[in-house]
């Protein structure tokens, strides 16, 4: 929008109890969206956003004093229908009421088919302060969260403690969840003293004095720099850097502290240590190059503290000791569980799956494991895997679900199975396939690197889809409690990632025959996920055109889309698109594509027919 010369800044801060990290950005983006919508029609400048665990804030620059007032002439019914014998009819009265004017204010103007009545309607004119005062509560409380807390008169992610709402120098008389807006806020929990807010930049600077870094990007840069400095001082590098995305929304004043645990605990599987540090403590492991050149864990880790005095050695030591004590307890638990699990083979753990339900009314996890093993063996020739290795990996893929380690550390499922399979002396390829069968776990995750891992990963997902559809458990509407859309998306990702040239019906059919209706429903379901993935790369109309070919080879569909997209980027492609658009407009009322060349009367018709026949033959030859 254009900047209003008389505009002033609108600043809003919502201060609350600590938000879960996953809600911080959602709260900030939701507040921005709500405020911009609240002042829709008011000229304004740039929008800035701040986000942290205890506060989100938005500034809109150069906000005009109100919406511009406009007057429009709205035409209505013919004069003959609006007035009879000089008196207004129900038609005229209803039109006037709908436009918010008195019937005596109606005018007569010329319409395309004769005189009509019209009303001069004035819109706009609302003052910005009034819009904010009336709309701020809804803008805040309408932010969508997966889960909310109820307190007093409201529901939100966490209880709201303070609201700052300023338009220029003036406080906006708004109330949010029973909290009246003002110009006072607080800094860090451990730094006493209120802060009087005058403007956004002053707020940012004074918050820093109260140990709050309001800008999320600045906090992130500080965390990354401190981690690199602390790791470098120890001759190591920081692992699990993806944790920064979460930790940045857990602290207001990031300060990195070095801590350590007993060196003897390094005997535990490295991934267990790393997962426990990240998932349970949100601390960062440290790795150092070993004699063989590979990075190895060391018994030190980095804590991103939120304490204003973490730079003080005594305070840092207390923080390090506390984190080390909690982490060591989990490590010792893990050592016990791992030792207990090693007393039985992975196959023996798998035998306990008979008591573990897979899906309600769909049998046990043991029954699923049998099916996955058999299907993985049948898939082996398709993916170039050894059938015996794939079948064994599939049969053992879920066995570690009954271990104490996975019960305590669910994020290690698959990895524990791999470790135990190695200890059991399972054939080469089986341990890795057990771990890889969970890939991909999320968008942009890695794919199985081994053929047996690919076969097992496909078998697990295809079994899930075919068995649930056979039982009539397909998703309804947007609900998908069994994660079937994720499973179908995984099949598509695996097939495209591996470049498997197989018809979709043949691939799904390896899990056993389905009746025609169920097979068609499952085919449509998987193709919908293929469509969604292709639409991430190509225009919707192009993807739909490719799918309309009826080809059920997913790799061929992707290749068609790639080729067609490239062709349409050329000048000839643009001309072709224009030509077909015109042709489709001409024949939009015709569905029959048959014709009799003997009925042609003009040479141009015969020439076009001949060119089409020739082109069809060339296309068939290339196909």
Q: What would you note in describing this structure?
A:
It contains 23 helices and 20 strands. It has 623 residues and is α+β, with helices and mostly antiparallel strands. Strand 2 and strand 3 (55-63) form a beta hairpin. Helix 19 (516-535) runs antiparallel to helix 20 (540-547). It is flat and about 100 Å long. It starts with 7 loop residues before the first strand and ends with a helix. The model is unreliable at 1-5 (pLDDT under 50).
Topology:
Elements: E1 8-16, H1 21-38, E2 47-52, E3 55-63, E4 70-78, H2 79-82, E5 83-84, E6 87-88, H3 90-99, E7 107-111, E8 114-123, H4 128-141, E9 149-151, E10 154-156, E11 160-167, E12 170-171, E13 175-176, E14 179-180, E15 184-186, E16 194-196, H5 200-209, H6 216-233, E17 237-238, H7 244-247, E18 255-260, H8 270-281, E19 284-289, E20 295-305, H9 313-341, H10 346-351, H11 365-383, H12 387-396, H13 404-408, H14 415-423, H15 430-436, H16 451-470, H17 484-498, H18 504-509, H19 516-535, H20 540-547, H21 554-568, H22 571-586, H23 603-622
Antiparallel strand pairs: 1-3, 1-11, 2-3, 4-8, 5-6, 7-8, 9-10, 11-12, 13-14, 15-16, 17-19, 18-20, 19-20
Helix pairs in contact: 1-4, 8-9, 11-12, 11-16, 12-15, 12-16, 14-15, 15-16, 16-17, 16-19, 17-19, 19-20, 20-21
């Amino acid at each position: 929008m254009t900047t209003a010369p008389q505009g002033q800044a609108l600043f809003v801060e919502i201060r609350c109890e600590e938000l879960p990290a996953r809600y911080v950005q959602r709260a900030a983006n939701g507040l921005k969206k709500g405020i911009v919508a609240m002042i829709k029609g008011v000229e304004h400048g740039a929008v800035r956003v701040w986000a942290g665990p205890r506060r989100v804030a938005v500034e809109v620059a150069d906000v005009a004093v109100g919406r511009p007032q406009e007057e429009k002439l709205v035409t209505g019914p013919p004069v003959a229908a609006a007035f009879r014998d000089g008196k207004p009819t129900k038609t005229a009265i209803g039109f006037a009421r709908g436009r918010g004017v008195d019937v005596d204010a109606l005018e007569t103007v010329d319409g395309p088919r004769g005189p009509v009545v019209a009303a001069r309607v004035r819109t706009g004119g609302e003052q910005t302060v009034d819009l904010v005062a009336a709309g701020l509560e809804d803008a805040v409380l309408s932010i969508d969260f997966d889960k909310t807390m109820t307190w007093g008169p409201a529901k939100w992610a966490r209880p709201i403690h303070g609201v700052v709402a300023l338009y220029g120098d003036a406080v906006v008389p708004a109330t949010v969840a029973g909290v009246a807006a003002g110009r006072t806020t607080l800094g860090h929990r451990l730094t006493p003293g209120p802060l009087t807010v005058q403007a956004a930049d002053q707020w940012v600077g004074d918050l820093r004095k109260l140990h709050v870094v309001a800008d999320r990007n600045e906090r992130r840069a500080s965390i990354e720099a401190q981690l690199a400095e602390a790791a470098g001082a120890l001759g190591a590098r920081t692992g699990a850097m993806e944790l920064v995305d979460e930790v940045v929304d857990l602290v207001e004043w990031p300060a990195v502290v070095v801590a350590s645990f007993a060196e003897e605990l390094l005997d535990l599987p490295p991934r267990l240590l790393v997962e426990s540090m990240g998932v349970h403590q949100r601390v960062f492991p440290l790795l150092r190059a070993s004699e063989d050149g590979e990075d190895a864990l060391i018994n030190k880790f980095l804590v991103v503290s939120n304490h204003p005095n973490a730079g003080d050695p005594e305070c840092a030591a207390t923080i390090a000791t506390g984190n080390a004590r909690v982490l060591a307890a989990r490590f010792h638990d893990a050592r016990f569980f791992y030792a207990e699990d090693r007393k039985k083979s992975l196959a023996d753990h798998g035998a306990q799956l008979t008591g573990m339900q897979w899906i309600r009314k769909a049998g046990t996890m043991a029954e699923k494991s049998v099916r996955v093993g058999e299907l993985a063996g049948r898939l082996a020739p398709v993916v170039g895997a050894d059938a015996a290795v794939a079948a064994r990996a599939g049969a053992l893929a879920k066995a570690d679900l009954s271990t104490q380690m996975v019960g305590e550390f669910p994020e290690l499922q698959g990895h524990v199975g791999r470790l135990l399979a190695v200890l059991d002396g399972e054939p080469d390829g089986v341990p890795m396939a057990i771990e890889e069968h969970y890939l991909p776990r999320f968008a942009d995750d890695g794919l199985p690197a081994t053929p047996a891992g690919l076969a097992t990963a496909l078998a697990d997902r295809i079994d899930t889809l075919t068995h649930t559809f056979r039982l009539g458990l397909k998703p309804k509407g947007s609900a998908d409690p069994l994660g079937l859309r994720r499973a179908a998306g995984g099949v598509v990702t695996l097939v495209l990632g591996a470049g498997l040239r197989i018809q979709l019906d043949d691939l799904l059919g390896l899990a056993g025959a389905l009746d025609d209706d169920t097979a068609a429903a499952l085919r449509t379901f998987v193709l919908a996920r293929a469509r969604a993935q292709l639409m991430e790369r190509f225009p919707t109309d192009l993807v739909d055109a490719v799918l309309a070919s009826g080809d059920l080879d997913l790799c061929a569909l992707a290749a068609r889309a790639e080729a067609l997209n490239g062709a349409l980027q050329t000048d000839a492609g643009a001309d072709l698109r224009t030509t077909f658009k015109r042709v489709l407009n001409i024949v939009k009322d015709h569905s029959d594509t048959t014709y009799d060349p003997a009925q042609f009367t003009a040479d141009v018709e015969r020439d076009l027919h001949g060119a089409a026949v020739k082109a069809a033959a060339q296309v068939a030859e290339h196909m």
